[in-house]
């Protein structure tokens, strides 16, 4: 059975270092940040979003576990935010570790997320995905997410 369990401090430390670096790389790949500014910008954004780390209110950081596997198969971080007059869940990070990809864990984890969010009394989940991440976009589409905003850019010669 797939479930979410709260990250430990050690898991958080390892995840946050990798996530900060990964987010920096994604922003470089998307053309939003230069390589020089990427890591400082990423650190700044994480510090702003998680000023108290695991203890930051309204933020939920979980290891994704399957009782048939010895360790976590992925991680998920979401927060409860206000949008206008309505609270909703916003997924900041969702990863299925490489060894477990293409085995159904992504869909099952998103279904578990639906359950968590419903238990919190919420009925909307939002997230951001980089346009170049076709695998993630396909997974989210398969899970019923729809694009709500598309930003397009063109580099001039």
- Spans where pLDDT lies below 50 across 5 or more residues: none
The string of secondary-structure elements, in order, is EHHEEEHEH
Class based on secondary structure composition and strand pairing: alpha+beta
β-strand number? 5
Structural description of this entry:
By secondary structure, the chain is an alpha+beta fold. It has one domain (2-142): 3-Layer(aba) Sandwich (Aminopeptidase), CATH 3.40.630.30. It contains four helices and five strands; from the N terminus they run βααβββαβα. Strands 1-2-3-4-5 form a five-stranded mixed beta sheet, sandwiched between helices. Strand 3 and strand 4 (86-96) form a beta hairpin. Helix 1 crosses helix 2 (35-49).
């Amino acid at each position: 059975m797939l479930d979410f369990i709260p990250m430990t401090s050690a898991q958080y430390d390892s995840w946050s270092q990798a996530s900060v670096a990964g987010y920096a790389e994604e922003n470089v790949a998307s053309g939003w940040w230069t390589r020089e500014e990427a890591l400082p910008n990423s650190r700044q954004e994480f510090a702003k979003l998680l000023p108290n780390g695991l203890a930051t209110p309204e933020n939920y950081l979980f290891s994704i576990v399957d009782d048939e596997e010895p360790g976590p198969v992925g991680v998920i971080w979401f927060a409860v935010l206000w949008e206008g007059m309505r609270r909703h869940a916003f997924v900041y990070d969702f990863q299925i570790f490489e060894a477990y990809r293409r085995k159904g864990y992504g869909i099952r984890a998103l279904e578990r997320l639906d359950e968590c969010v419903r238990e919190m009394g919420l009925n909307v989940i939002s997230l951001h995905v980089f346009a170049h991440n076709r695998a993630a976009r396909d997974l989210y589409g398969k899970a019923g997410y729809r694009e709500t905003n598309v930003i397009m850019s063109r580099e001039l010669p």
